[in-house]
Amino acid sequence: MEFYRPTSWREALEIRAAQPDALPITGGTDVMVELNFDRARPAALLDLTGVPEITGWSEREGQIQIGASMSYTAIIAELADRLPCLALAARTVGSPQIRNRGTAAGNLGAGSPAGDSHPPLLATGAKVHLESVRGSRELSIDQFYLGVKRTALEPDELIRSIEVPAARGPQQFAKIGTRNAMVIAVCSFAIALDAGSRTVGTGLGSAAPTPRQATDAQDFLAEALPWADRDPLAEELANRFGELVAAAAVPIDDVRGSARYRRHALAVLARRTLGWAWEEYRCA
Amino acid sequence: MSAPANIDAPTRDGVGDSPQRPDGIGKVTGEFAYASDLWHDDMLWGATLRSPHPYARIRSIDISAALAHPGVYAVLTHEDVPGAKYYGLDHVDQPVLAIDTVRYQGEPVALVAAEHPEIARRALAKIEVSYDVLEPLTDPRKAAFDATAPALHEHGNIVRHQPVRFGKISEGQRAAEVVVRGEYQVGMQDQAFLGPEAGLAVPTEDGGIELYVATQWMHVDLRQIAPCLALPEDKVRMTLSGVGGAFGAREDLSMQVHAAMLALHTGKPIKIVYNREESFFGHVHRHPALMRYEHGAWRDGTLVYAKAEIILDGGAYTSSTMNVVANAASLGVGPYSVPHIEIDTYGVYTNNPPCGAMRGFGAVQACYGYESQMDRLAAELDMHPLEVRRINAISQGSVLANGQVVDTPAPLAEMLDRLAATPQPEPADQTDIRNLPGGAANTTHGEGVRRGIGYGVGLKNICFSEGADDYSTARVRLAAVGGEPTALVHTAAAEVGQGLVTLQGQIVRTELGIERVVIAPADTQIGDAGSTSASRQSYMTGGAVKVACEAVREMIFERAADQFGVPADELSLAGGKIVAQCAGVLAALADFLGTEPIEAVREFHHRPTQRMDPVTGQGDSHTQLALCVHRAVVDVDVELGLLKVVELAAVQDVGKVLHRNSLEGQIHGGTAQGLGLAVLEEIQVVDGLIRNPSFTDYLIPTILDMPPMRLDILENPDPHAPYGLRGAGEPPTLSSTPAIAAAIRDATGLPLTRVPIGPEDIIHSVK
């Protein structure tokens, strides 16, 4: 197996163009498991950890650019104030060792519906910056996921960064796992309230072939929430929101849980996270 | 001879102290060599082709393409097994490599040796096996009772049926004022040791084999390996390699014969290491159980009868099912005095994964059954769960289900009182989500959370039961090395992580009054030590080291008596010196020994036991019994079914604390493994196929799942055992599971009859 370790973004794109079957790797927390179990036999690995342009993050006009090789640990330490939802999700990823290595861009590259980064990125309306030697493009996050472990990434493209708007209101993330740590999501849910535009974003994980938004639930809530009066959350409203979130899910039965449980849990998580977010909004 | 009576300078790091493990630093820093780290110049890598089907006939095996693969040195099938084609722990029925039938998913079919593990894997994929797939028998009840089910072995599908008939059940049924019935299930738990199966086989010039393996019992391996290789036992020399946990999963052979076959065939050293996924197929698991219980009592809570049917799914081969059945039967009503008992325990063959030894060994399953019943009885009588247990608790002099009189301390009532007096944990601090169910996954800020409290009591037999000639062998050699008296201890006992290497040194220091002890590598150049299982090595190998030390001491005293003209019975050893009662120090041991070491090899046997009567189950089948009790406090999010075990408190009687740190580790670890069985750990098997052979989906407790523990350790000595000790490793594994299950029932009000209890059991029962 060939192993490439470019030292610049340009070089990385050129290798990617020349050898599209080279598998990009940063933290390796997904890729190495696949290799160890002999489930994947890529012709080459393209190690991006030596590329300086994709480390760290920057902020421009309220938009945070998260470099493709920024670890979950760094997201938690440096972005919990600006991106609370993503930081909450990052805290639930694996163990400290996994969080030190793993990246949100890696979650996107793997395209697993269970990835913990997806719901916050969906709820906050993130964009993915893709580049190749042909040029660059920007995809809205909901355009990125095509199917189970299938994404819009072209064979010669690399994820350069993820752009997430700094929080414009309360955000929450919750994840069901059957263990209290180091567990893949049975299902997960993210909610982001935009106090300025009085809109609501949602994201569902492990609930369909791809991560997805619950658009009916978002629309319902944006309309129904007493934004101006900041009244306490009505129980029927929270319940209806939970039902609409559950209705947006197309879950499966698998070794981690049944479709029935996933729908039930999503409704509960939707109700609860909305309650927490709304309390924060009212008290702000 | 008793321990030295007159010790002026008590020995440091002796029995009762907590010295550091000799292998501790290496293990913590990653320098300790486990079996998977073994390396030999010129070695090849072995790999195993396994059946994808739970039940099939093999029509043909074509190895030609695999053999032609570059870098491949050998491809072997059952035809290449040099000697006996079958082996087995207690009953020879398992093929070294499948012959014409595969009986479980993962059964070994063929072997490859290649110069690289990756090449070996690719060659495996080129072996063409043609199967006629058969309908697997996967329902253990059907295997036990349905005569139309296909017979998986010549003698049918029942490995052992062990009845227990004690008293007269009809009298009990007439006398009972209340009756509680329940059906309970235990899922298939895995031992989940961290060091996968691994070893190295090196061919020797005399046509024999040297085997370096991670195992629990080298001599029983040897007795199975040698016939399969058609070699005399003295041509198979085994040395224990670094063992990364065992818990019963290394009692059966895994890669031993396979590596040796490949080594003999190629003339080269062969290394085999399973990966985690293969490990799930490469060892036996804990027997799943289907149990029906019926208890009758008077209104005051006194038990008058108990009736039980226990079906244990042994999977495709016998392994240790016969002995697991005996435990579940003889301990089937637990540590309670019951005047009339009728138990039928069945171990059966199915096409599910083979099941055998795991910490707790049959007693775990029964304990979950009878403890669930005790809670049911308490609820029926509106009594406290501890009270109904206290009323019926055994004590010294009580009679167990097998008719055996408990002839050593069994202070269960006192243990329950102490548990009742243990302070309760505070309510969870809900401002930190890590204290709540779901933890950092942020699923609740207190919504839906209810607290429950539950209790569990377990009774475990220690050492081998039912007439086994259970013994261990130790050689102790005392010599002057560099001016210091130094003891070398040599046994075949397997250190699997439990700390026997530490204890051996402590015993020598206490018995010989010296400081320096070297533990020789465990190998088969000395007599049998028996298995590192049944909580028996402190008792048995500890006992063997103790009696070998006593023999050495006696030889010293005889020689010293001659030399110094002092009666031998006035001598003692302390601080590396020979001391006389009146004359004081006679000589430094190092000077006394000079260039003449003193050595003794001794066997230690425990008192004999009897087989259970095949019809009545009566017989003094156990040599020692041990008790542990648990209280579990659990917070349950009843809307999501997630939970947090808040605290586990345990009271255990260990006879004598030999090494407090190690002991507490055993109680913590055993309790954690019981927690795993209660709420997390299950190999999910559907139609004979394992659905979750990975640590991604087979979940064992993390440190965030295992709560702090309160331990209360009692020391009521067993006069039959060395130092009065009682085996301690298994009992906590029994009682923590029912305690946690009871706490969840208390929190939710649900019957919850099956473990492990998952979120869906709670949610879908609530609705």
UniProtKB/TrEMBL annotation, chain A:
Gene3D superfamilies xref list: 3.30.465.10, CO dehydrogenase flavoprotein, C-terminal domain, Uridine Diphospho-n-acetylenolpyruvylglucosamine Reductase, domain 2
Boundaries of every FAD-binding PCMH-type domain copy: 1-169
Pfam family, one: CO_deh_flav_C
UniProt GO molecular function: FAD binding; oxidoreductase activity
Keywords: FAD, Flavoprotein, Oxidoreductase
Transmembrane annotation, as ranges: none
Alphabetical list of PROSITE patterns matching this protein: FAD_PCMH
Cross-referenced PANTHER family: XANTHINE DEHYDROGENASE SUBUNIT C-RELATED
Descriptive protein name: CO/xanthine dehydrogenase FAD-binding subunit
Lineage: Bacteria, Bacillati, Actinomycetota, Actinomycetes, Pseudonocardiales
UniProtKB/TrEMBL annotation, chain B:
Domain Aldehyde oxidase/xanthine dehydrogenase a/b hammerhead: 29-135
SMART domains according to UniProt: Ald_Xan_dh_C (SM01008)
One Pfam family of this chain: MoCoBD_2
Record region (Disordered): 1-26, 423-447
Family matches, as InterPro entries: Ald_Oxase/Xan_DH_a/b, Ald_Oxase/Xan_DH_a/b_sf, Ald_Oxase/xanthine_DH-like, AldOxase/xan_DH_MoCoBD1, AldOxase/xan_DH_MoCoBD2, AldOxase/xan_DH_Mopterin-bd_sf, Xanthine_dehydrogenase_dsu
GO terms of molecular function: iron ion binding; oxidoreductase activity
Coiled coil: none
Protein name per UniProt: Xanthine dehydrogenase molybdenum binding subunit apoprotein
